[in-house]
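Record type: monomer structure entry
Structure origin: computed from sequence
Chain ID: A
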Amino acid sequence: MRNHAWMVIAAGLLCSARAHCASESWQTLQSPTAAQVASVWQSPPSEFGPEPYYGLNGPVTLETVERDLDTIKKLGFRTVTVQWGYNTPVQYLSPEYFAFFRQFVEQAKQRDMRVWIVDDAGYPSGFAGGLFTTKAPSLRMQALEVTQEIPVRGGATLHRDLPADTVSAVAVDVEGNAVSLPLHNGALDWTAPPGIWTVLIVDHEFRTSPTRSDTNTRRVKDTEQSLEDYLNPAATEQFLEFTHEQYKRYVGDEFGKTIMGFRGDEPDYSIDGLPWTPAFFTRFREIKGYDIQPYTALFAESPSRKDPGVPIHLTDEQRRIKGDYYDVFSRMFEDGFFKPQAVWCAENNLEYQVHLNHEERQMELTHSEGSFFRDMRYVQVPGIDAIWHQIWMDTISDYPRLASSVAHLYGKPRAFTESFAAYFPRPDVAQARYILNEQFVRGVNLVEMMYFPATSAGPKPPPSYMGEPGFPELAAYVQRMSYLMSMGRPDAEVGLYLPSSSMWLGDEDANRQFLSAERLLSEHQIDFDIVSEDSLAKDLIAGRGYFQTLSGNRLRAILLPDVEILSATALERLRAFAAGGGKVIFLGDTPRWIAGRTMRDARAATIADFAWAKILDAQLETTPVPGMSPPSAPPQPLVVDPAIMAAVLAAAPPTVRTGEPESSLRVMSRRWSDADVYLLFNEGSTAIDALATVRSRGNKAERWDPQIASIAPIAATRNGSGLSFQLHLAPYESMVVVIRSVPKEDRQDGP
């Protein structure tokens, strides 16, 4: 059944990419004409949002729901994301709960509203309101951690009988040098060489990320209610039985109609130690061909070693072994948690949307979630969140492009954002528009807004910015923008490589250079998709001089920023791509290592490995990690050596040319069946006045204004292979430009 469902997903993706599907549902890529879009965009279908995150808290009643849904709809929402909350009159997931939820769905249906169901009673997803702790304890999350630290002086012999759960041991000297220690028949016997040593013993333990559960009587985020074992498909099957299957029994007749799908939140391993499951070592040997168990003490942590007096200094080989561990972890997380839910939703005419933790901090994400692209590969609606000033007027925040890039690579029409949850102070309407425009111009096209609590105590004003007079106009703007930016296909021609495997090795510089490369492209008006190791190695469709995504856009240039390790398969595909005319640029150092089946046995790279590529000796300025230490003033443009920048632009021309680059201008391009579409956004506090040129074979330029659903001509002239027009953007203003071909006799302006 599950394999059949994935065949359905794959067929749907291919169908979407070819735009041959008979269905015109929102879940498929569509290729309409500009006239078809114009006939719908004034009042798009409810499926295009936006949606409030609605918490059913307190003594909610049917009257509460009726009142709140009426208010929500008056504010301009047509879809609602709903979560059962705290202090409610019925128990979460009980028959009484589902009877009430059925009434909620009926009320939404009467108002022609759509519903997304939050898949747990809080976050992260996967604890089923505490049921894994009380009813399925053997399927709880597990980890490897240091449980004993034993001092040993040189020349002394350590004998220790170890518990049956002991996994591995390592000895560390005062300089941080580490050696793995063999275990024999449940015992450790080791004579220390000269020096002062500490022996670390690693066991596997039930260890969970903290959960913020509305079924927690103390209403705190703690480890009282354990998450499931994300790496074990049987645990996810149990999660689906606890939750999704129950919804199916009670409201399944509304699946794919009123109910759009399930919404997950921040599944991750925010734990001390290494993510682990009982099948891990077996699966590792299947994938990598060697035994990782003796090495795990090198990488595991314990609370007592969060700030150890003697850190462990890994050798290059040990670092690559650690990379192998996280490679397998990320594959098991994908197969154990995300894929089963996407398959279940596909079987039941639903969509699965979820966002991770740490999207804006990839070094953390690679160790708590493994790989953004693997986690999201099967998810129908990949997402990010912008909840605590990661995006603001004084930050650099390109990370929303992660969600849209996964969508583009794998043929998914939507990428979503959860926005505003922990913004303090709350943004006003103008600030909220800015935060959303930053995400729209990076490809996000479905908006969920936090937070609308149930008004169970009686009528009261909507929360924060939702209660401002201009909010319904903002909601209308968001709905139209979401619709416009969902139509057609993406049109980026540049791919930027995300060096997750280098980050598994602990390469902080790879992360910083990736962030700076995002800025380099963004500040020079180059639309791009982020690409992963897997997409380069196998998922992108290889053509002569291009890589094509399942959405249909063709990448003709690939930039790789400061990569430490690259797979031989990806390298060979890049070589063939370049031989066909594609452009490959290494920004900074070329990879040190070329990996085959394992990173441990990777060979040292040579100059000859990259003789066919463009290598730019560029160490870009360090870019601050979004949300960590934002500047107090708008950031200055990234400074790049002119010769370096000229080489980049030769391979990856700007999507929109403005003479001198406008460092605060951000752009995104899409393609409808008969039109080129450009979203332009001024992220800066200074107006932009420039002659803009876009690549298009069209002859008529129009400005489509999502605020009032108006279409106005723009005076434009032919300029070589493009069309030029005068661009004026006030501070923080956005603009949608549509270029299409119109017969000369029908044109009223322009050339």
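Annotation 1: The chain has three domains: 2-134+247-270+337-473, 490-651, 656-746.
Annotation 2: The longest strand covers residues 142-153.
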